[in-house]
Specification:
- The protein contains five helices and five strands; from the N terminus they run αααβββββαα.
- It is α+β, with helices and mostly antiparallel strands.
- The protein has two domains: 67 residues, no CATH class; 75 residues, Transcriptional Co-activator pc4, Chain A.
- The chain is elongated, with a radius of gyration of 20 Å.
């Protein structure tokens, strides 16, 4: 399947999912609606697999967004702290490292970063990583694999 077709399918399926009642929608219904909109038979196995991939990616991203929102709601309830930039501090890994949730150019990011002190303020350094919700979801899914690899290296 060519890139243009993949792009059209992804765009159409995503639009359907964004409009859908997720309690009522099924993958079959999504394929049927997308087939009608695209005038393309998506019942072939190569299309089915790609539609399933788009649906799963959408659902993973939706779940990650919900988890971030739940963290923000908990913070609004007063059981979390914020840094000087207004970013939600999820946890402190050490005195210099922390995990925060931040909004950057309209995207929510999970940031694992080192901080330094300057003029009495804690400021983020360039040492660290910021993950989009989708990247965070992928990382989180792979934590058992990471833990197993660490165990193997330690033994």
């Amino acid at each position: 399947m060519d890139e243009e077709t993949r792009g059209k399918i992804k765009k159409t399926v995503t639009e359907i999912l964004e409009e859908a009642d997720m309690n009522e929608m099924t993958e079959y219904k999504i394929r049927k609606i997308a087939s009608q909109r695209l005038e393309l038979d998506l019942s072939e196995s190569k299309y089915k697999a790609y539609v399933r991939h788009v649906v799963n990616s959408f659902l993973e991203e939706l779940k990650a967004k919900q988890e971030v929102e739940e963290a923000k709601v908990g913070a609004a309830a007063g059981d979390q702290e914020f840094d000087d930039d207004g970013d939600l501090i999820i946890c402190r890994l050490s005195d210099k490292r922390r995990v925060t949730i931040q909004d950057f150019r309209g995207k929510t990011l999970v940031s694992i970063r080192e901080y330094y002190k300057k003029d009495g303020k804690e400021l983020p350094s360039s040492k660290g990583i910021s993950l989009t919700e989708e990247q965070w979801s992928t990382f989180k899914k792979n934590i058992p694999n990471i833990e197993e690899a660490v165990r193997k290296m330690e033994s």
